[in-house]
Amino acid sequence: MKILLLEDDSILANTLTELLELEGYEVLKAKNGNEALERSFEYSFDLMLLDVNVPFINGFDFLKELRESGDETPAFFITALIDKHSLSRGFEVGCDDYIKKPFDFDELLIRINAKLKIKAHLVIYGDITFDFKTETLTKANEPIVMQQSDKQILIHF
Fold first, then answer.
1. Which of 135, 71, 63 has its CA nearest to residue 92?
2. Which pairing describes strands 142-144 and 122-125: parallel, antiparallel, or unpaired?
3. In the chain, where are the structural domains located?
4. Could you say which of 52, 84, 119, 125 would form a disulfide bridge with 79 (CB–CB 3.0 to 4.6 Å)?
5. CA 156, CA 52: separation in Å to the nearest integer?
6. What are the residues facing 59 on neighbouring strands?
């Protein structure tokens, strides 16, 4: 699983990267919004961890731009902004979670694992999704009726 980490504090970025890599995640770091935007076009990520107060494009604007372009990659804000307005704005632009600094790494890991576990049982191609857990196929969020033999082919593929 690949994670984009947008964090301008190099000590925190390096620490998070090291800890996440020990857990088996691949982490690509960006220290500013422009670099994060470039990485988001170059690579496909399973999760994004985003600081808000970073140079050039802040985390809120970065995520808003991605969401407007159709990118639905799960995103967590990890930020020192603790006011309700910032929390609200984070969810308005499309974050999946909002974690206030300082945070407990084990709690962050629990949240990441929970989010990625949900995603792990889905195969998504364009607007087509197959859910291994429920053995359902959808196109543009509309269910597609399948024969049992077709389901078995997808499950074993």
1. 63
2. unpaired
3. 2-120, 123-156
4. 52
5. 42
6. none
Out of 1.10.8.60, 3.40.50.2300, 3.40.630.10, 3.90.1170.40, the CATH code matching 2-120 is: 3.40.50.2300
SS3 52: coil
The CA angle 56-33-69, to the nearest 5 degrees, is 115
pTM passes above 0.90: no
Structure-derived torsion over alpha carbons of residues 69, 93, 5, 122, reported in degrees to the nearest 10: -70
pLDDT, tens digit, 9 for 90 and up, residues 17-68: 999 999 889 999 999 999 999 999 999 999 999 999 999 999 999 999 999 9
57 φ/ψ angles, rounded to the nearest 5 degrees: -115, 120
For residue 143, count CB atoms less than 10 angstroms from its CB and return exposed for 0-12, middle for 13-18, buried for 19 or more: exposed
